[in-house]
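In the design runs reported in the main text, the only information available to the sequence generator was the tokenized backbone. The following block is the verbatim input for one such run; it is reproduced so that readers can re-run the procedure and compare outputs position by position.
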């Protein structure tokens, strides 16, 4: 079967992440697509990923065919892709799948499917970015309305949608109950062969002797909660000078983060390690950590980094955003806080002072992930979804 998967981001080439180069996987959604493509290929299907690129070019990465298309620079990368992907799909494709359902508008038809990686319009306006002028105040409202419109269009016109969390299903049940049977909840999964508690992080840990390592395995953006993480570390650094926040990633708010660290004299408590290879480096970094924080501010599904940390028997702290509450049961397999630095600080402090709780939630997390978020469940769900 010939399957085309259309996405505005897969291998490099995403606005704000130019540092990745042309062959890098940016984050969880891109790793998700990589794994999905590899599964479909393993099942004997012909997979082509169609994505924006710096030029028109066909190439392969690990047996995945990629059709790169150069978009005209007129209205912003994401909307441009929505307007042009359809002309590049193969005429003999048996199935067309949109990796981001917002690309359904305006050319999707009812034979196509899509994936929802979490609701994107749940971000409050950020004072840092959106409340400086009268003009900027109304931009977020218009943007949110357009985001909703595109998702509503997808809900109405796609044949069915794979949602990584229950958030979309609940939303559709409330707002568009006649379409609720289109929504198939397929949570993310973890490769426990790579991310497992047997991995040791001695090589990294020895570089930070007598430090309590708190890992932030996220791209550096307000959406992923970089401001919450840094403000929490600032709050705690006075009483717990041994804590060290390791930031693994890069992103559009890196310059802001560097300034914040300098302005608040956090150089001894925060280290930016930059982007690391997902499959080779991240397991060792998780293994070396004492606590993993996933302080998402908005636009979150079933975070891959959260699942990976839990699979590796690490105590995680998440916010109560999006699909994170599908993963973490508070006080059982992790801790849940509000998306504020004050709330995150309290949860970190709780783990710093309660080793029994820390150990129990870590043990429960590892068992929970093996049972609920494993590869076999994920692939079976997609086999049923694609009807292959």
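Verbatim output:
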């Amino acid at each position: 079967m010939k399957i085309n998967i259309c996405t505005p981001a897969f291998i490099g080439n995403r606005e704000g992440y130019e540092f990745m180069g042309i062959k890098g996987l940016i984050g969880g959604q891109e790793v998700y697509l990589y794994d999905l493509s590899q599964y479909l290929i393993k099942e004997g299907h012909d997979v082509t990923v169609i994505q924006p690129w710096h030029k028109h070019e066909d190439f392969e990465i690990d047996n995945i065919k990629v059709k790169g298309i150069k978009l005209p620079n007129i209205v912003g990368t994401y909307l441009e892709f929505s307007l042009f992907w359809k002309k590049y799909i193969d005429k003999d494709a048996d199935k067309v799948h949109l990796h981001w359902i917002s690309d359904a508008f305006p050319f999707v038809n009812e034979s196509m499917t899509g994936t929802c990686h979490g609701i994107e319009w749940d971000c409050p306006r950020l004072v840092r970015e959106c409340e400086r002028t009268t003009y900027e105040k109304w931009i977020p409202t218009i943007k949110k309305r357009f985001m909703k419109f595109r998702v509503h269009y997808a809900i109405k016109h796609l044949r069915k949608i794979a949602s990584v969390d229950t958030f979309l299903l609940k939303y559709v049940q409330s707002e568009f109950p006649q379409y609720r049977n289109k929504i198939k909840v397929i949570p993310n999964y973890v490769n426990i062969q790579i991310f497992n508690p047997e991995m040791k992080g001695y090589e990294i840990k020895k570089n930070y002797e007598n430090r309590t390592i708190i890992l932030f395995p996220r791209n550096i953006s307000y959406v992923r909660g970089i401001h919450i993480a840094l403000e929490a570390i600032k709050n705690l650094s006075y009483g717990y000078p041994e804590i060290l926040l390791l930031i693994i990633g890069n992103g559009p708010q890196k310059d802001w983060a560097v300034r914040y660290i300098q302005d608040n004299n956090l150089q001894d408590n925060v280290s930016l390690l930059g982007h690391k290879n997902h499959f080779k480096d991240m397991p060792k970094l998780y293994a070396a950590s004492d606590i993993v924080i996933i302080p998402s501010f908005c636009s979150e599904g079933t975070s891959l980094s959260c699942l990976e940390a839990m699979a590796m028997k690490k105590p995680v702290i998440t916010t109560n955003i999006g699909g994170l509450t599908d993963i973490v049961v508070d006080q059982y397999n992790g801790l849940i806080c509000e998306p504020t630095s004050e709330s995150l600080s309290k949860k970190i402090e709780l783990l710093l002072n309660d080793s029994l709780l820390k150990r129990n939630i870590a043990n429960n997390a590892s068992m929970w992930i093996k049972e609920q978020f494993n590869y076999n469940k994920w692939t079976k769900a997609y086999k049923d979804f694609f009807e292959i």
